[in-house]
Specification:
This protein has 381 residues and is an alpha+beta fold. It contains eleven helices and 16 strands. The protein is globular, with a radius of gyration of 21 Å. The two termini are 15 Å apart.
Length: 381
């Protein structure tokens, strides 16, 4: 695979490429776009849709962080659906977030149909504020929308030095165990704890995130057997058939049970839509989604000092990573390590976007007259 690199400092391209329309480029060729540049363009797109600039910056950070960590299914490729729902007024660009405090350690936020990134960030902030005083902070949210990569909120907690859980529900895409109809969302189980390296668990309760099936469908690529059932309940490797059908739960009944747990925590308890009622943002353009979230922040030094915590987490990591490796395994990695290393690499080299992804961002920018640098219009000769 050939690559094109862009140097933001010298504003010059390096590699075999010439300016042109990204839509005409070979999809096998990546353009490496610096993260700050991609963040700026993304933030400007959302600001142009009426999102206050601080919120637009946060939305851009969440999307670009997903691409940095290699989670392209939740990256800038999703911009069009968010902006489309903003245009249709199904998402409120300037929500009035109101807080209801039930107990000293528990609160609920009404998201006012705002962008899930904005609602989720505020909810985690509040959970951290409560936990800083009381040791534990529980914040639920309702009337929200898709909040992207769950790890965004885990990283937010880690930056503050806290452990955290982040749960959300989603539009139905996965059957309850034994069923064939979409009932549960592919909600990720997400947990983080500070350490060196920090532990960051962000995993869909489906065999694979549904966004990956949609991505394969958009590219005309097959999906592995065992990912999904078609509309008739039959196993399929056809991405479109799988996307139109249901994605399967990870680990069978175990993944289904954990997804049901998150449906209860994020959906039932928060007052949001639940049990198959969350609107699909790609299909339902009549009503807001009413997604629910659940954030739990834990102060990790309640019973041991920060120094002891650090030492114990390092010891845990060393024991886990220092064990005997299975055949063919070069290194044992903790959850979140591959993504963290990917982010370091991509911050240095740029985020690889193929022609389709570039065309998506450029089209959204052009539609609202946001300037796009030449590298993002690269046409491979």
């Amino acid at each position: 695979m050939r690559s094109v690199y862009f140097c933001i400092q010298c504003n010059a391209e390096r590699g075999a490429a010439s300016p042109g329309s990204a839509g005409e480029a070979d999809l096998s060729i990546n353009v490496h776009v610096p993260a700050p540049l991609l963040h700026h363009v993304t933030a400007e797109i959302f600001a142009a849709h009426g999102v206050p600039r601080p919120d637009a910056q946060r939305v851009a950070a969440c999307l670009v962080d997903a691409d940095l960590r290699g989670v392209a299914s939740h990256g800038v490729g999703r911009i069009p659906i968010y902006t489309e729902r903003l245009r249709r007024k199904l998402v409120n660009p300037t929500p009035s977030l109101t807080t209801e405090r039930a107990l000293t350690v528990a609160a609920r936020i009404d998201g006012d149909n705002g962008l899930g990134f904005v609602v989720g960030t505020r909810a985690m902030d509040l959970a951290l504020e409560i936990a800083d005083v009381h040791g534990v902070g529980l914040v639920l949210a309702h009337r929200s929308t898709h909040y992207g990569m769950a790890a965004s909120y885990l990283l937010q907690a880690l930056d503050a030095g806290f452990c955290a859980f982040a749960f959300t529900n989603a539009s139905p895409a996965m059957p309850i165990w034994g069923g064939r109809d979409a009932f549960l969302g592919t909600s990720p189980f997400a947990f983080a704890a500070p350490g060196e390296p920090p532990v960051v668990i962000d995993m869909a309760m489906s065999v694979v995130a549904r966004g990956k099936i949609r991505r394969a469908m958009q590219r005309g690529e097959p999906i592995p057997e065992g990912w999904a059932l078609d509309a008739e309940g039959r196993p399929t490797t056809d991405a479109k058939a799988g996307y139109d059908g249901v994605v399967l739960p990870a680990a069978g009944v175990k993944g289904s049970a954990l997804s049901l747990m998150m449906e209860i925590l994020a959906g039932v308890l928060s007052g949001a839509a639940f049990g198959g009622e969350v609107r699909n943002q790609y299909v339902d353009f009549e009503q807001p989604q009413n997604v629910g979230h659940c954030f739990l922040a834990l102060k990790p030094d309640l019973f041991i000092s920060r120094a002891e915590l650090s030492a114990r987490m390092t010891d845990l990591a060393n024991r886990a990573k220092g064990g005997r490796r299975a055949q063919g395994v070069e290194e044992i990695l903790l959850p979140g390590e591959p993504e963290s290393r990917m982010a370091v690499k991509r911050r240095a080299e740029g985020i690889p976007l193929d022609a389709e992804e570039l065309a998506t961002v450029v089209a959204e920018a052009d539609a609202v007259q946001v300037d796009v640098p030449p590298v993002m219009r690269t046409k491979v000769a």
